[in-house]
Specification:
Blueprint lengths: L28 H16 L1 H10 L6 H14 L6 H14 L14 H6 L3 H15 L15 H12 L1 E3 H8 L13 H13 L2 H4 L1 H11 L5 E4 L4 E4 L5 E2 L11 H19 L14 E5 L3 H6 L3 H4 L5 E4 L1 H8 L3 E3 L5 E3 L5 H7 L11 H18 L4
Parallel strand pairs: 4-5
Antiparallel strand pairs: 1-3, 2-3, 5-6, 7-8
């Protein structure tokens, strides 16, 4: 990607999170149509857009004006504020991480989001992009993508258990570059809230607070109590967590998205969350890693650690054998059973296999890794 130039230094950015959403319904037609027009425009004009970014004259460029006009036409904006409204639409997609500043590209998952028709799957893709890439200090003419505000907010939620409207307001007046930990403690939240009250932030920026809360409501595994105006992670009890080696820092938010993706995959294939081996809908299931999560994190490979294809939904019993490499699976889904498995358990396991519907090529590559661990423990494959 060509190096982008900043129109102004980050230090002069006003010290609050700027976020006004032109379209609040992320699964709605207007949102999808506008996003698709921007992506098509970028694909068609990629070379010229990168040249504009290099020359630093993007804001007044004819290309940017052309895109604004296209957004005006498909959105039905009228009057003297029509182009202003179009700019708000484009800026919205930059701030939530879908489109890169200066229109030099877009997040790799954006086209999957546009094409997806299932609402739940669309919200999962939204959650990934919003968490990984959202930068509320960026806009279409300013690249501050190193400041990832939603990532900071959700890590603060993960550390504190819940966040209410006052906490959201506290975060929105926080310069996140001052906090190397990547989140605020309860004491820091309370201090920032007092600053927001004294500066009358809630009175001046009511809409921006409401719009950010509206987007957070669409994040997977987040629950919201409208009476208490409070967010917390649901931590779906149907997809249980198991003990994890905390000497390797696991991203709790990405892990929750990973579990939700597995659940939605099972619902799409089987109609409900089930164990992928025996197809039974147990009250509790494990989102079991094929290539162990710790191995992925040792390699600094977060993509693999939270890749849905590196997972299988398994009952706690099946997972206990799979996790200890006492069982594994061939590429055709048939089960491999180690020498330490009791005969009665072996007879039961041999009744089942993984279905072709879940055995895509990426999952087969992870299974090849697991089989090597199985072979090492069991002295080969019989």
């Amino acid at each position: 990607m060509a190096n982008t130039k900043k129109r102004r230094d980050i230090e002069v950015y006003e010290n609050y999170w700027k976020f006004t959403a032109a379209h609040l319904d992320i699964t709605g037609t207007k949102f999808n149509n506008c996003l698709n027009i921007i992506v098509l425009f970028i694909d068609k004009n990629m070379h010229a857009l990168k040249e504009n970014a290099d020359h630093g004259d993007f804001a007044d460029s004819e290309l940017y004006k052309q895109l604004q006009q296209q957004i005006v036409e498909i959105s039905g904006f009228r009057g003297t504020d029509a182009t202003l409204s179009a700019r708000k639409v484009i800026n919205q997609f930059v701030k939530i991480g879908y489109i890169y500043p200066l229109l030099v590209g877009y997040h790799p998952l954006v086209k999957s989001f546009i094409k997806e028709t299932n609402k739940e799957k669309k919200e999962i893709i939204f959650s990934k992009i919003f968490y990984e890439n959202s930068s509320l200090a960026s806009d279409v003419t300013l690249d501050n993508r190193e400041l990832k505000h939603v990532n900071f907010l959700l890590k603060t939620l993960d550390k504190n258990g819940s966040l209410n409207k006052d906490d959201i307001m506290a975060l929105m007046v926080t310069d996140i570059s001052n906090y190397r930990a990547g989140y605020l403690t309860r004491e820091q939240l309370d201090m920032q809230h007092q600053y927001a009250i004294v500066s009358e932030f809630d009175e001046r920026k009511y809409n921006q607070i409401a719009h950010l809360i509206g987007y957070l409501k669409r994040f997977v595994d987040l629950k919201y109590d409208k009476n208490e105006e409070r967010f917390w992670f649901a931590d779906d009890p149907q997809i249980a967590d198991k003990d994890f080696d905390e000497s390797f820092a696991r991203d709790g938010v990405k892990h929750r998205i990973y579990k939700d993706e597995l659940k939605e995959e099972s619902k799409a294939i089987y109609g409900e969350p089930v164990c992928y081996l025996d197809k039974k809908p147990y009250k509790s299931l494990i989102a079991s890693h094929i290539k162990p999560c710790v191995d992925c994190l040792k390699e600094h490979n977060e993509e693999e650690a939270y890749d849905v294809d590196n997972g299988l939904l398994l009952s706690p019993t099946v997972d206990s054998y799979f996790d200890k490499k006492d069982i594994s699976f061939r590429d055709d889904g048939s089960i491999l059973i180690g020498s330490n498995v009791a005969e009665t358990i072996r007879i039961d396991f041999e009744k089942y296999k993984l279905d072709d519907a879940i055995l895509n090529e990426r999952r087969k590559r992870y299974l090849a890794y697991h089989r090597k661990l199985f072979e090492k423990k069991n002295g080969g494959i019989q």
